[in-house]
Amino acid sequence: MITALYAGLLALWVCKLIHGVAKLRRAHQILLGDGGNPELLAARSAHSNAVETIPIFLILLYLFEISLSPLGTLGLCLLHFFGVLFIVGRVLHAQAILSDTIKKRLYGMQITVVSIATLASANIALYVTQLINM
After folding, report:
1. Hey, which CATH number is domain 2-132, 3.30.9.100, 3.40.50.300, 1.10.10.10, 1.20.120.550?
2. Could you tell me the pLDDT band of residue 113, with boundaries at 50, 70 and 90?
3. Interior/surface letters 68-95, b for 16+ CB within 10 angstroms, e for the rest
4. What is the CB neighbour count within 10 angstroms for residue 104?
């Protein structure tokens, strides 16, 4: 259950982002929205972007994991590769949003999109391969 490992790690990352939002809300006494506070706006953006991308990644990772029998050890290595790569992308992206660093944000988003797109393609390729072999 490699996907479970990355689901847990990513859930902890989301908890860290939630904590950042809550801390800023308390500090600035803002109950809803961002109250026009740019720091809180950035923290909410980092959190919401993570919440938007993590589920699709985990779904694709899990589907790839359960389809791995033809790939053996290579498949297990690929799962960990994609998991680590995605986490790096998410952390870079959130750090960039929170520190207003455009270059890091671009890298984080590119890594995220490449991870998702490659896993999506791998799932499609596995399906087509199994279909052809029927």
Report:
1. 1.20.120.550
2. very high
3. beebeeebeebbeebbebbbebbbbbbe
4. 17
Residue 70 has pLDDT above 80, yes or no: no
| CA separation, residue 25 to residues 5, 6, 51 (Å) | 30, 29, 19
Residue-level length of the chain: 134
- Rg of the chain on CA atoms, in Å: 17
Q: What is the mean pLDDT of the chain?
A: 92
Global pTM?
0.89
Domain residue ranges of the chain, discontinuous segments joined by +: 2-132
Average pLDDT value for residue range 26-44: 90
Closest by CA position to 105, among listed 21, 45, 25 = 45
Structure token pair of residue 37: 């506070």
Whether residue 46 contacts residue 23, with contact meaning beta carbons closer than 8 Å, is answered with no
Residues 6+ apart with CB under 8 A from 75: 64, 65, 68
- Structure tokens that stand for 106 in this block: 């671009």
